[in-house]
Amino acid sequence: MSPTSETAQGGRRLVIVESPAKAKTIKGYLGPGYVVEASVGHIRDLPNGAAEVPEKYTGEVRRLGVDVEHDFQPVYVVNADKKAQVRKLKEQLAQSDELFLATDEDREGEAIAWHLLEVLKPKVPVHRMVFHEITKDAIRAAVANPRELNQRMVDAQETRRILDRLYGYEVSPVLWKKVMPKLSAGRVQSVATRLVVERERERIAFRSAEYWDLTGTFATGRTGDASDPSSLTARLASVDGRRVAQGRDFGSDGQLKSASAGQVLHLDEANARALAAALENAAFAVRSVESKPYRRSPYAPFRTTTLQQEASRKLGFGAKATMQVAQKLYENGFITYMRTDSTTLSDTAVAAARAQVTQLYGADYLPDRPRTYAGKVKNAQEAHEAIRPSGDRFRTPAETGLSGDQFRLYELIWKRTVASQMKDAVGNSVTVRIAGTASDGRDAEFTASGKTITFHGFMKAYVEGADDPNAELDDRERRLPQVGEGDALRADEITVDGHATKPPARYTEASLVKELEEREIGRPSTYASIIGTILDRGYVFKKGTALVPSFLSFAVVNLLEKHFGRLVDYDFTAKMEDDLDCIARGEAQAVPWLKRFYFGAGAAAGGPAAAEGSAADAGNGDGDHLGGLKALVTDLGAIDAREISSFPVGDGIVLRVGRYGPYVERGEKGEEGHQRADVPEDLAPDELTLEHAEELLAKPSGDFALGKDPVSGHEIVAKAGRYGPYVTEVLPEGTPKTGKNAVKPRTASLFKTMSPDTVTLEDALRLMSLPRVVGTDAEGVEITAQNGRYGPYLKKGTDSRSLETEEQLFTITLEQALAIYAQPKQRGRAAAKPPLKELGTDPVSERPVVVKDGRFGPYVTDGETNATLRTGDSVETITPERGYELLAEKRAKGPAKKTAKKAVKKTAAKKTVAKKTVAKKTAAKKTTAKKTTATAKKTAASKASADE
Length: 948
Fold this sequence. Notes:
29 helices; disordered N terminus; 6-stranded antiparallel beta barrel; 33% helix; single chain; alpha+beta
């Protein structure tokens, strides 16, 4: 069957895909007789709450959305926002002779296709249409060669969904009770959070070590050039045959590792300076020259995780932004499917890449045979190839017509794909050892390493980035002078260098993705949504590109490790992935596995004992026994909420995570000497040292009694609130606080120039006297001076005018106020404030990026796109890279959606029946169009399980 107008004349065919953008692109490749519609992601799912569960279900089924007593039957409901779309699909299907389900070719896409079948209940022939790129040839081939629905893939995805629902809905309430309301736990998100927390624990426990060495600049005595430099720089490697200690020789406790102790020479500053002085007049000569051939092979084409990592390193994109941009490129036919574990290229793609190598770089860069890349991902789940430009001829970036983030990501994918079919880079690596004898007789040996590339090969097209900003990239050359053994060298300078070991680097989005994949935790296609979840939940925040765990995440992970150890164990989580893949391959059954997970091996529920080596047997070696999830969440008596959220800092000071944020405390409440102070939520845990905690406790906190109001007799106090300092009055006991007769205390925010510990009673009474009546205008309209959210202002009826200073609230006269109102009201923006910080030029827009102070706080802007600074970001510490990343994420989200005023349009069309009918139809059409557009952007997000 060919999708042409001739073959389509025999009937009407309905093709259903996930997104409107994808539908629009595919529609252009199919002839008349084909109707392409979007499901807009999942049309049904497990209920989000008991209110969505049909009335016939009660008890645990209503709470979980899963009937755990009857083979874990899920309760699926059509999402409220999808009912109109389902109705439309049913109407289209009623007019069609065939149905093609063209959702993505992975587990998630297969599940969407199955749900469509279950809901639409078609009575016409059904075909499963699959493709991994949206080109005319690929779409037509997919129509001509459909397949059946893969029920195994559906079962595996359904098992995953049920598993994640049970995990999230059973464990999250434990967090609500013992830590804080509205928290969430998830099979992968909790493990990802644990990784970030463990890295921070390592940083807290880390003790720096100091070590010293020497650097020498040695001259050959010849006139040098680019290919043969006249000098080289070498670092001290050994003294009297003993290797000089480097950072790798020290442990996290700041001491030499046992394997290095006695084997290496640990130089302190005094000894290093003494050695440098002893070498001041020494004669140096080349002891040895070792040359080895250098060869570097191309990197494999992108799969999902490597694309996320490289986009983070090279473009400053977060994982979520990368996938949003990639989704647009795929749906518009520029790249192949972007959720894949495969590094394989089709024969067509290999031919296209090789043709482009010859065309752009010449035949010398083309290997004799096509390169193939073996998959490195265990249980690779996707059935398609690597991420590459679509089609049988690759468009160069300039030919695409793309711009901005889409252009940059396409260019990255295109370069990587073409480079994967190019020749190796070859060259030479050289190590030169230089020796000299000190005045005290000690033998000192310096080493220098060099690298020259004689043929760049694939590096002409692409060089991979590095997570470590100080790491040397593959194409970097280091040329050394051409010297031979025994050649005399002159020491122009010998410097003494001090070093300190550094704590392990925090994870970035790129390195966390890499770590999750290496540990085989979760699915690569969900990593972007997982990182987004832990950021949104407040478990992690960003400082620059680093992922910093919050104190809240320490409490959550502490609880999970102590009472649900298996559930956040890395091996256990990885083994669950293996089990789920066994189900997908038909090697295991879903229901018995779910019974073992939920009720425990051999429990009364009738599940068989867990097989050796399965997830139910995995553990962290701490003796924690997984007796079934249900048993674990039922007995919570052993969980001490206070202990879980308390972390000793030292000297009797404890960090506690309370319901309203973290705080430090010394002693118990009510006891003499008790101290307590809030901890800034954006403070990194490794920065809360004993000294810092003491500083926080030493700062004035709590209520400051200012005196009594001479008029009311009420006590006036100054407080530090969550939204800033303020003053208020203390009402007498017995004053009604609720009901009709409730009395609210007078309250006023402090001016920016005031603080709770310096404000006076007079200041407080003045502040609480606001708003102040300035007077009335000629028409008798009252003018008041008020302090608002955006600063001081005058108000006359509905007309507001800004004041320049807070002090004007008390000093402005009626005459001055009338003069302000006599001026035309500014309709545009106020004069622009100078930027708070300049960050540099944005690599996408090529416009200068600055930090500005806005109505809702500081934000970064390039003049086209604005992005508010997040928790953990500050004007003082934000880096250019972080600024570019925030702008990239904002651009990937697209412009903010505007709410249409439909009601007004409907009301206007009431004069005649005919007009009313037309108006309603028009409004309905607009509503549907807008809703489709708005919901389309959710498709990428809905592709990943929320409970993970």
